[in-house]
Prior knowledge:
Layout: H1 6-11, E1 13-20, E2 23-28, E3 33-34, H2 45-54, E4 58-64, H3 69-78, H4 82-91, E5 92-98, E6 104-106, E7 112-114, H5 115-122, E8 129-132, H6 143-146, E9 149-152, H7 157-168, H8 178-192
Parallel strand pairs: 4-5
Antiparallel strand pairs: 1-2, 2-3, 4-8, 6-7, 8-9
Helix pairs in contact: 4-7, 7-8
Pfam families: Thioredoxin_2
InterPro entries: SoxW, Thioredoxin-like_fold, Thioredoxin-like_sf
Organism: Roseibium alexandrii (strain DSM 17067 / NCIMB 14079 / DFL-11)
Amino acid sequence: MHQITKSFAAAAVCLTLGHTAGLTATLGEDGLHKQPWFTITFKDIAEDIQTASDEGKRLALVFEQRGCIYCKAMHEKLLSDPEVTDYIKEHFIVVQYNMFGDEEVIDIDGEELTEKTAARKWGYVFTPTIVFLPEDIPEDGTVADSAVATMPGSFGKWTFLNMFRWVNEKGYESDEHFQKYHARIINELREQGRLGSD
């Protein structure tokens, strides 16, 4: 797997947003908020699925855009929470996409696109949108065809984190729909006295 180094990402950022428990988000020249643990790749989807699998993780794509207040909130409120980020980093590789960007993307079907034409092809129109890919490279189809789950928009901590948990636990293969899974986890959190904002 060809991988651009983290130092390249560090060079691309220009504004520190803040610190929470040692986690730092930055604002890149493209206007997107960055996490130091996001993975920078050549955006070849099949290759990225394989890399994630080799590391015992899953691939998640996050679509954002310049000036997106919901993306900003996601970074400042959710991705600054160690409970959220520790879980994601342990189980997922997250690759950021610019909804209107021009970086090259290679779809699962081999079509060469840009970030913005990929977003249109796959039908993603909201930011942030997080797309969860399968463990293994599909034999054919596109990202939209192959995604096991999609989370469009901004949510509270437990909805957000539970979606990552549900995908990691392969809830999409069970009879327990995400909403039922989420409700069960919320009830457990309530019983433990840990219920947050949602």
